[in-house]
Write a structure and sequence with these properties.
Rossmann fold, Neuraminidase, 8-stranded mixed beta sheet, 5-stranded antiparallel beta sheet, globular
Length: 692
């Protein structure tokens, strides 16, 4: 048998001198996508990975068919009403993409005999493209015109299209690099935002009028601060167009009466570093969620005519233990989306009259120890019904409708899991690991009850821990393929995430970033100590900033993990953050720090995975990237693997798999995506000793 030897990338030494330090880089040449040697290297790595996993081909097929058997391939979403129409998506067996449709109907339900109108068929639009995704969509108030954007490379660079839903005609003329889209109340004026060609940030808002060419479109606003991105939308009541400019730490909103599209946008509150706020409108009052009085936000109101901070009246105060994450505002009530003890809460408030005063009306109760809950699609402003989505690690995705008149929730739809799924076979827990500094790190667990063998199960731990993002504790039918083989699965809610509010995020970013990594290590140590898993059979996974986590903890404690899966990992921290020409770099200074300042440089260098690789033994590693990733460039994981090959002293597999036709999220088609997961799971099952 011929030995399958890993590819070797030829080193070309370069150095960066800064703050008295020398950054050595032998693989910077991999950045040149046009260099045929780069394509050859990525292809060689793919071929090597395929050869190394050839023996798993049967298992990959088995896992794919197994996961497919748990998906209702022909299905339909819960219809929601907007204007005079009921909108929904449906899928068909054998087709990769969703079909977006609508029907006419009454105020309470779609017409039983109403004809279906296909708005967008992703399968038709995707023809001729290896990748396809629909981005933003918005329909005029009268239901006639649809603005939508599409991406056919995976680079998250979207093209604007306008479709006449009365005739089915898509207008000629397109606009590139479009982000958000929103129609004014006249049904003729479209506002859209456009990204800068180099930095890939939404920096301009444009105005387009139906019947004119895009060459006549006008720039309404431009933000020249490289930290900020623009996004446009409408208030829930439809009265105003809102233009928000946001960095990672600061926001600023401008508003325009939706009936006056040629008017001038009014500033709500000028930007001030570290001040974030968002706005909605009801009966001549702004409802403003703001962190001006504390990191976890409070709710204030102000008159439309006088929105300045001097006129803000507090409605819900800041609370140290409760994060006010969002507000869903309706004509007669509102719902606050809060997070307390790491779990989401939906709390209800009733307006007494047309004024801004509201009284607490309880909250929607959830029965499980770890779950996800958030508003669903609620497009009708004047209603007594509130839709919300609920799921957990053992409960499939569900949509409920809560009736404000009687306080009752009705299940509208729960995703059907074919193949004999019995939720009673699975258990879920929420525990806390103690970090080195005493912080209590929440960890959510799921397992198959009849497979639990204390101290003997294979253990899988997932982590992210950046940008204040809270890991969603949702249901995945794919997960059953691991659970049913005895794997205990855990999700570590480490600092840098948002599970315990803004302070939890603050404690894991900038000059506190190392807490993210040590929290994760503490969580794994706790889980094995408490016999949730075998210390010799621990697998970990993370993606993007979670890929940074994978690289950092593997450098810190390579002995702790048997296998690592890292998706589109942000591992070349120093070189990326020192290159301000790359997309996203400058805005990211507010999350990681600016390495041009020595304090941040030294700190970031202390954990940057690429720069801290050294000779020694490493776990088995499967590292995946995409050629058209716009957020973590393909060369970061490619360089990381090339360098690690020269340093690792073990015989554990190190595999790099590059999707040559996708972006940050991997394959776009639902069947193709399942095949990617089948490879991940087959690799894990082999490395954890569950299959030979």
């Amino acid at each position: 048998m011929t030995e399958n030897k890993p590819p070797i990338a030829n080193p070309e030494h370069t150095e960066t001198h800064l703050h008295g330090a020398v950054l050595s880089d032998d693989y910077a040449w991999l950045r040149d996508k046009q260099n045929p040697e780069v394509a050859a290297y990525l292809k060689a790595e793919n071929e090597y990975a395929e050869a190394e996993t050839a023996a798993l081909a049967g298992l990959r097929d088995e896992l794919y068919e197994e996961m497919l058997s748990h998906i209702k391939q022909t299905d339909i979403s819960v219809p929601f009403r907007e204007g005079d129409w009921w909108y929904y998506t449906r899928t068909e067996q054998g087709r990769q993409y969703a079909i977006h449709c609508r029907k006419s109907g009454s105020a309470s339900e779609p017409g039983a005999d109403a004809a279906e109108q296909v708005i967008l068929d992703g399968n038709e639009l995707a023809k001729g493209h290896a990748f396809f995704a629909i981005g933003a969509t918005n329909i005029t108030d009268d239901g006639r015109w649809l603005a939508y954007t599409t991406d056919t490379t995976g680079f998250r660079q979207y093209t604007l299209h306008i479709k006449d839903l009365d005739t089915g005609e898509t207008l000629g003329g397109q606009v590139e690099r479009v982000g958000s889209v929103v129609w004014a109340a006249d049904g003729r004026t479209l506002f859209y935002t456009v990204e800068d060609e180099e930095q890939k940030r939404q920096y301009q808002m444009w105005r387009h009028t139906l019947g004119t060419s895009h060459g006549e479109d006008a720039v309404v606003y431009q933000d020249d601060d490289e930290r900020f991105n623009l996004a446009a939308g409408r208030t829930h009541d439809g009265a105003f167009v809102v233009l928000e400019s946001a960095s990672h730490t600061t926001t600023e909103s401008r508003v325009l009466a939706a009936e006056d599209p040629l008017g001038t946008f009014t500033l709500i509150c000028p930007r001030e570093d570290e001040h974030e706020y968002s706005v909605d409108h009801r009966n001549g009052m702004w409802f403003i969620r703001t962190n001006d009085a504390g990191r976890n936000f409070r709710l204030v109101t102000a008159p439309v005519a006088a929105p300045g901070r001097e006129n803000w009246v507090e409605r819900i105060p800041h609370r140290d233990g409760v994060m006010l994450e969002d507000l869903d505002l309706f004509a007669g009530f509102y719902v606050t989306c809060e997070r307390e003890d790491g779990l989401p809460r939906l709390r209800l408030w009733l307006f007494a009259d047309d004024g801004p005063e509201a009284a607490p009306a309880g909250e929607i109760a959830f029965p499980e120890p770890a779950y996800s809950a958030q508003p669903h699609i609620n497009r009708i402003f004047d209603t007594t019904m509130f839709r919300y989505a609920y799921q957990s690690l053992v409960t499939p995705s569900s949509v409920y409708e809560y009736d404000m008149r009687n306080g009752e929730s009705t299940l509208l739809k729960q995703v059907e899991i074919p193949g004999g799924f019995d939720r009673s076979l699975y258990g879920s827990e929420r525990v806390h690991a103690t970090a080195a500094d005493g912080a209590q790190v929440p960890v959510s667990l799921v397992y198959r009850k009849d497979s639990r063998e204390p101290g003997r199960n294979a253990l899988y731990v997932y982590g992210y821990g950046s940008y204040g993002y809270s890991l969603p504790l949702g249901f995945s039918s794919n997960r059953l393929s691991l659970l049913d083989r005895g794997v205990v699965m855990a999700y570590a809610h480490i600092r840098g995430g948002g599970e315990l509010g803004k302070p939890w995020h603050d404690a894991g970013k900038m000059l506190a970033k190392r807490n993210t990594f040590t929290d994760f290590i503490a969580a794994v140590e706790y889980l094995t100590m408490e016999e949730y898993g075998d210390p010799a059979r621990v697998a970990i996974e993370g993606g993007s900033a979670g890929g940074l986590l994978m690289g950092a903890v593997t450098n810190l404690r390579p002995d702790l993990f048997r296998a690592v899966i890292s998706h589109v990992p942000f591992v070349d921290v120093m070189n990326t953050m020192l290159d301000a020409s790359l997309p996203l770099t400058v805005p990211e200074y507010e999350e990681w720090g600016n390495p041009n300042e020595e304090t941040y440089f030294r700190y970031m260098l202390s954990y940057s995975p690429y720069d801290n690789l050294k000779a020694g033994s490493y776990p088995s590693m499967l590292i995946k990237t995409s050629l058209y990733d716009s957020q973590v460039m393909y060369w970061e994981p490619a360089k990381y693997v090339a360098k690690l090959r020269t340093l690792k002293t073990d015989n554990n597999p190190l595999l790099l798999v590059t999707n040559m036709q996708a972006g940050h999220g991997g394959a776009s088609g639902r069947y193709d995506y399942l095949k990617e997961i089948a490879l991940d799971y087959a690799f894990l099952l082999r490395e954890l000793g569950i299959v030979g």
